[in-house]
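[Meeting: bench + compute handoff]

Bench side (C.D.) handed over the final construct sequence. Compute side (W.E.) agreed to return the predicted structure before the next meeting so the bench team could plan truncations. Sequence as handed over:
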Amino acid sequence: MSLAENVKPVYRFGPYVADVRAGELYKRGKKNKVQQQPMQVLAALLEKAGDVVTREELRAGIWPADTFVDFEHSLNTAIKKLRKALGDNANRPKYIETLPRRGYRFLGEVEAAEEAPRAVAKSGSSLAGKTFVLAAEEGGECVVAPVDEKCFEEWRRLRELGDDVGVSILITEKKLLLLEAGSAVRLLSVRGGAGWCEVRILEGEHYGKTALVARKMLREEKKRTGKGK
């Protein structure tokens, strides 16, 4: 049995969802085109995230013994294509670490799941166009909403670094919006299995703008009084 056959159907990491059974990689709900062998390598690395997967393990699991190919070249090419798909850097890896002459290790937190991202996107598509109200986390009065994916990635990076000053700058530059809990928004799209939605703001200072909001912060709108759109 190959390495790829041992893995769970779906893995989530960072903004990505890997459906290894279907051989598909998504970034915030958008499919990234990745060839078969790079996806098989990714599946093997995700299955042993945090541990070293040796080159011999990859060779035995993905390249059959009766396949006449230049294994070293094929593996190196697969890793390069995989890094390109993930926006990873070999010198400063975020996801794929190279251990010279040994193999590779997948870095970062990985979550295994059973459902495919397409199913999540499909269920979310029926909500598009509906109006919701924002619900802040317990004890909070505002919902944090990056204005786009680039700002989301920057915000996430600053949070990981504990850089509160950098986060404050994003807020000052209106790249990170603070939306009042209870405000109405219209859902435009669900970003695959990542748990984030694109919404249009229907009330308050940022009326008319679009932003990304965590799905868990959205509540079905009920008849309300006292606030005009």
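W.E. noted at the follow-up: Residues 71-86 form the longest helix (16 residues). C.D. will use this when planning the next construct.
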